[in-house]
Amino acid sequence: MKSFVQKLKNSLEPFYSPSEAEYMAFSVIEKFCSVSKIDILSGKNFEISQAQNKQIQQALARLQNYEPLQYVLGEAFFCGNFFEVNPNVLIPRPETEELVKIVSQTLQAQSPEAKILDIGTGSGCIAISLALTLPKAQITALDVSAEALEVAKRNAKKMNVEIDFVQKDIFSWKNEENFIWDCIVSNPPYVCESEKNTMEANVLLYEPATALFVADTNPLLFYEKITTLAQNSLCKGGFLFFEINHKFGNEIANLLSENNFTTIRILKDFYGKDRFAMAQKN
Q1: What pLDDT, on a 0 to 100 scale, did the predictor assign at position 175?
Q2: Which helix (H) or strand (E) holds 277?
Q3: Could you tell me if 34 and 52 are in contact, meaning their C-beta atoms sit under 8 angstroms apart?
Q4: 168, 144 in Cβ contact below 8 A?
Q5: Phi, psi of 144 (to 5 degrees)
Q6: pLDDT in the model for residue 44
Q7: Average pLDDT of the residues in 95-115
């Protein structure tokens, strides 16, 4: 088995760094052969069936075309759980795990039975992770994509949590739709089109652009709309949480202040970059 892993690694090294190629090789074996990395390294021998080998070779070809490993495996690890992912949804990032932690800790201390709205839920990773850490909360998760919501629904069923999933375009949300929430959280599209040249090919080629990018001419488009919605839809003292582009921390703080939000904080991620905004409705 060790030699087989090495063979896979060698096939991937023209496309990835040695460490990435090794990680991918072990991940593919673990996924399709149900063999742990520890068992492989310990020298245990395993037979690979013809069907398993076919799956591995198909995965290898997809990886050589720079398709993200998570899509090839059909899952991504997030907040301690494996979430189904496919090209209809963004692959959850570690930074978003930090957002979930910030929201969870805040609400556990102040409003563990909160009514929460997750805008742009994608795979459902934020909403589901909050449901698992805040079992008394009532959570609604919204997305414009029907395909993304199908993925989110399967993830919620797999993890046995109750979430109300709604297909809706927030830009068609009318002011008279006055649902009242204790908390609104969103990780909206925030990567500027001009930043594409700094991104990896696997992101640009495979992840849904509508969930990633925003025009340089209006980089705060989603934040402005969600802040307006929050004015009408948050209870007094209710919380608003964002994941943000690190370039626009000051601008988002100003936006929240101009819209009469208080207790505004811009928080840094583990790279030391402005990545999260939180505020309360006045």
Answers
A1: 62
A2: strand 274-281
A3: no
A4: yes
A5: -80, -20
A6: 80
A7: 96
Q: Are 188 and 120 in contact (CB under 8 A)?
A: yes
Q: Which two tokens stand for residue 92?
A: 């959850």
Report the alpha-carbon distance of residue 84 to residue 82 in Å, rounded.
Answer: 7
* Angle at CA of residue 217, ends 263 and 268, nearest 5°: 35
Q: Which of 112, 144, 143 is nearest to 125 (CA)?
A: 143
User: Structural domain boundaries of the chain?
Assistant: 2-65, 87-281
Within the chain, where are the H helices?
Answer: 2-12, 18-33, 37-41, 50-64, 69-73, 94-110, 125-133, 146-158, 201-206, 221-233, 249-258
For domain 87-281, the CATH architecture is 3-Layer(aba) Sandwich (3.40)
By three-state DSSP, how is residue 191 classified? strand
Is the pTM higher than 0.85? The answer reads: yes
Q: Tell me the C-alpha to C-alpha distance, in Å, between residue 204 and each of 11, 208, 211, 215, 275.
A: 23, 8, 12, 15, 21
Dihedral pair phi/psi, residue 218, rounded to 5°: -150, 65
d(CA 75, CA 30): 13
Q: Cα–Cα distance between 202 and 222 in angstroms, integer?
A: 25
| Other CB atoms within 10 Å distance of the CB of residue 73 | 19
- Torsion, Cα 225 249 120 262, to 10 degrees, reads -60
Phi, psi dihedral angles at 147 (to 5 degrees): -65, -40
Nearest of 224, 257, 119 to residue 181 by alpha carbon: 119
Nearest in space to 71 (alpha carbons), one of 256, 211, 203, 190? 203
